[in-house]
Amino acid sequence: MDKTPRPTASSPYAVAQSAPHQILVCKACKHKDQPCKPGFELVKKLRAAIAMADLGEAFEVSGTACLAGCVPAHGAPCVVGWRATGKATWLFGDIDPDQPLDELIEFSRLYAALEDGWMGGRDLPPRLCDTTLARIPAAIIFTREGPVQ
């Protein structure tokens, strides 16, 4: 049985949401058997780009535990996710922190404008079409007491 520690909802993996939307960047990537920290670089760049795009009130950019979607063989292991209460969650892989962030900012604008965060692949910025890992519908969980969002 694998005894590797699992991420939990406590430090250093806790992500407390302080804005209506979150952009989560994997900070636990490994690349070619060496510790690789492109996620930290991407967090810094995305925070600056979100602020420059005047989206700082709508989005928080955070590093998070492994999102299990990297493709280290491609040389650009960053995985980035967008989530918000009541909205679909999106996960994109193979994001290179050294590439322009224009399409990530464009997606952020689209996502913030949608009530449910749901869009088709043809509505995505072109580069993100090829890097989509998942689009997960917003969860509505029913308990005996009623729906929980």
Structural overview:
21% of the residues lie in helices and 28% in strands. With 149 residues, the protein is α+β, with helices and mostly antiparallel strands. The protein has one domain: Glutaredoxin, CATH 3.40.30.10. Residues 6-14 have low confidence and may be disordered. It comes from Rhodobacter calidifons. This is DUF1636 domain-containing protein. InterPro entries: DUF1636.
The fold-level CATH name is: Glutaredoxin
Strands in their spatial order, largest beta sheet = 4-1-5-6-7
User: For the record, what is the CATH homologous superfamily label?
Assistant: Glutaredoxin
CATH architecture: 3-Layer(aba) Sandwich
Q: What is the number of E strands?
A: 9
The share of residues in helices is 10-25%
Strand residues, percent: 25-35%
Overall tally of structural domains: 1
The number of helical runs is: 3
Order of helices and strands: EEEHEEEHHEEE
* Rg (C-alpha, Å): 16 Å
CA distance, first residue to last residue: 34 Å
- Overall, the morphology is globular
What is the residue-mean pLDDT, rounded to a whole number?
81
Q: Structural class given helices, strands, pairing?
A: alpha+beta
Q: Please give the largest β-sheet.
A: 5 strands, mixed
- The CATH class is Alpha Beta
Protein name: DUF1636 domain-containing protein
Organism: Rhodobacter calidifons
InterPro entries: DUF1636 (IPR012863)
